[in-house]
Design brief:
Layout (H helix, E strand, L loop, with lengths): L51 H7 L7 H14 L1 E2 L10 H7 L1 E2 L1 H14 L4 E8 L8 E8 L2 E5 L10 E7 L33
Parallel strand pairs: 1-2
Antiparallel strand pairs: 3-4, 3-6, 4-5
Helix pairs in contact: 2-4, 3-4
Length: about 200
């Protein structure tokens, strides 16, 4: 028994901005790639089967696909208070909607549940955002429309670049910071720094 630390460092290349695609089309379920299908189903923290009526009401009159996802994000930003630093307890999409405040991870759960309720595959992304202050793990979601995955972030007013994705999953149960077996382990401290560096000159 005792304490220990783990330290890692990476140099990576990421896009300066995330792609946006207003008007990108809805992909019918029968035309979806097989690997997207698990992201259509309800999961532990994204009870999409309980959001069918709400999601349909939110996007009434909006073209199926990307624009519907955007409308869902607008709803979350307007109705759910972003409360960073209060995310020790993972809460589900239903709980987010009831409490009206959440951290980035749980706001993404609500977005995912609503997208899946519309038969749009959606998945949780966990990683880092270069411009996030104070620096910490960040979470957003991606939806599959127009034949590819697009980024949606309910906590950011624009699609910032500098996103370092480290894990994808159906919800937070798939992308834990660490998974332990045996005696309980307590995470005492986590420090993260992200900085932009000049590319090497050849």
């Amino acid at each position: 028994a005792g304490s220990f630390s783990v330290q890692t460092a990476f140099d990576i290349q990421v896009a300066d901005s995330s792609d946006a695609a207003p008007g990108a089309f809805f992909v019918p379920v029968e035309q979806l790639p097989e690997e997207t299908l698990p992201f259509l189903l309800p999961s532990r923290y994204c009870e999409s089967d309980r959001f069918t009526q709400m999601a349909s009401s939110l996007v009434e009159g909006i073209s199926p696909g990307y624009d519907q996802c955007n409308k869902i994000v607008e709803y979350i930003r307007t109705n759910i208070k972003y409360a960073p630093g209060e995310g020790q307890e993972i809460i589900s999409a239903c709980e987010v909607n009831e409490r009206s405040q959440a951290v980035c991870r749980d706001m993404a759960h609500l977005g995912i549940a609503c997208c899946r309720a519309l038969s749009i595959p959606a998945r949780l992304v966990v990683g880092y955002l270069e411009t996030l202050q104070p620096m910490d793990l960040h979470a957003w979601f991606e939806a599959y429309v127009g034949g590819r995955w697009y980024t949606f972030d309910p906590t950011q007013n624009n699609l910032n670049g500098g996103r370092v994705a480290i894990a994808y999953g159906r919800d937070a149960a798939d992308v834990a910071v660490y998974t332990q077996f045996g005696d309980p382990v307590d995470l005492l401290r986590m420090e993260v720094s992200v900085e932009q560096v000049s590319p090497p000159q050849y």
